[in-house]
Amino acid sequence: MEITQKELARIEDLTRRYATYSRSQAGLSAAWGGLCVALLGGLVLSNDILLYSNHLGLDGNPGFWRFLWKQPDPGLAQGSFLSSIALALPVLWLVGRAWIQRRVYERHGLVIEAQTPLNVGIQLVHLIAEIALAAMLILGVWIDLAFWGFPAARIPGALLSNAVVLMLPLFGRRMVSSPDRNALLMLCLGSATVLAGGHPEALLGEMLCCIVLGLGLVALGLFTHSRFRKVKRELDALPVDTSGPPSGAPTTVIERRSFAPRILPRDGADLAVALAIAALQTTWLFVLPSFFAGFLTHSSAIGECTFFVLLAVFLSFSVEKITVDQDGLRFHRLFGSPKFLAWERIVEVKEAPRNELIFRGWIWPPFPPREMTACLSSIGHYRITWDDGYCYFPPADAPQFEALVAKKVRDTQASLHSPATPAASAQP
Amino acid sequence: MSHEDNLIPPMLALDRVVHEPARLAILTALFAAEEVEFLFLQKVTTLSKGNLSSHTQKLEAAGYLKTTKEFRGRIPVTTFRITKAGRAALETYKIQMQKFTENMLRSGQGNRDQTKS
């Protein structure tokens, strides 16, 4: 192996840029946080406006708000809809953030950023931003109070809220250094304020700030994510070491070929099993969320729309075919980029028994993976296991799939685990 | 003593553990971060799994990196971290190589001057 100064610089630069998404850059998780913050702010604000227009005796309520709020909520803690949202959003954000980090920014493995003077400088910028945010939120509360003529009953609540806001930069310093913490803190603050109850009109300024800053976080998150995409493109373009297997070891050379999934059941029993599982999955994945959406909004139309949207999302993102070539496997879907698995990453491709498919593929985990297929057969599924996950795929042409893919994986694994390969090529 | 003779001692003084291209690539990647997982290291250095394992073992034996093995769910995850000795070795190597390159360029210039005269 030869290496030039330019290649070393490339390795260092790529590692450094990739590592920033573990600490100082946030990307999509900041955008997701900003969206949650803006949503919370928007909901409280719409409630405020409706409440204020009712208070003035105006009947100019826009249709959407009237639809959203059948009855404006004068004490936020009493409103089940807003309270549920306020309670669920920080949890949803944290779950979403963990998922985004794992699936997007740690796709090629976790790399933790080193603390450099630049990094410390970025943290300082964040601290200043948080102080500015705290100042804006405090100002917002006092503008509200001025609007309502500084009612004495609200002064203690406002002071308490100010104290919480002032602690924001202090808490922020102890958390992971990235714009994520701004999102989390704003979200927690907004949710805590809503759950603590009180009169929503006092939160008008705060919620306006939430919307503005939330949208700012969305823009920042999307911008930083676009830079990550460049890093990912550079990483994906790197060659994969396919050093040949040791002499005597089996090898398989394969041409590019596509495999469509089998959709139809094979016999009556197969259809019965597939329908029973499909009913269970439909209830869990589509019916329950739709029912929940309808219940929260008091609207059956919203519930029905949710059902069809979820179904459309499922079908649009399910795998429509697998392409196999000399480099690896590619999962193709109607929407979303094809997922690529290099042969070196694939640990095993093996036909899965029906029991395993039902319990490990269909029932648990309850949310199907990205590589799901809309298949009505429980026979002839292959389990594809790679270094950090697995999925099941039912090729329509199973014998050909077995002959090409399973054999190639076995050969690749044999060459990787052969003691001759590293020893022969790792000598200095 | 000729210019070429001056190049031999610095060449011999180079750390052979760091001088190997694959190990140099590994140390360079680890130098740029606090902690790096096997998967990323394999990707960025474009080494095969077997080669990477072999070279990291040699670096660990030299005390230049520290390996941590853990299970994340059911998946084994190997993480590497450069040690202070590794960091110092890489920095020293870079300085030595820079001096060596400069000497080589000077030597080339000297030879050309001698040929002209």
Outline the secondary-structure elements.
The complex is a heterodimer of chains A (428) and B (117).
Chain A: H1 5-19, H2 28-55, H3 63-68, H4 80-105, E1 111-113, H5 117-147, H6 155-174, H7 179-195, H8 204-237, E2 257-259, H9 268-297, H10 300-317, E3 319-324, E4 328-333, E5 339-342, E6 346-351, H11 354-363, E7 382-386, E8 389-393, H12 398-417, H13 420-425
Antiparallel strand pairs in A: 2-3, 3-4, 4-5, 6-7, 7-8
Chain B: H1 3-13, H2 16-19, H3 21-31, E1 33-37, H4 38-45, H5 49-61, E2 65-72, E3 75-82, H6 84-116
Antiparallel strand pairs in B: 1-3, 2-3
Helix pairs in contact in B: 1-6
Describe the structure.
The complex is a heterodimer of chains A (428) and B (117). Chain A has helices spanning 5-19, 28-55, 63-68, 80-105, 117-147, 155-174, 179-195, 204-237, 268-297, 300-317, 354-363, 398-417, 420-425, and strands at residues 111-113, 257-259, 319-324, 328-333, 339-342, 346-351, 382-386, 389-393. Chain A is α+β, with helices and mostly antiparallel strands and 428 residues long. Chain A folds into 2 domains: 9-236, no CATH class; 257-425, PH-domain like (Roll). In chain A, the strands form 2 sheets. In chain A, strands 2-3-4-5 form a 4-stranded antiparallel beta sheet, with no helix packed on it. In chain A, a hairpin with a 2-residue loop joins strand 7 and strand 8. Chain A starts with a helix and ends with a helix. With 117 residues, chain B is an alpha+beta fold. Chain B has one domain: Arc Repressor Mutant, subunit A, CATH 1.10.10. Chain B has helices at 3-13, 16-19, 21-31, 38-45, 49-61, 84-116, and strands at residues 33-37, 65-72, 75-82. In chain B, a hairpin with a 2-residue loop joins strand 2 and strand 3 (75-82). The two termini of chain B are 18 Å apart.
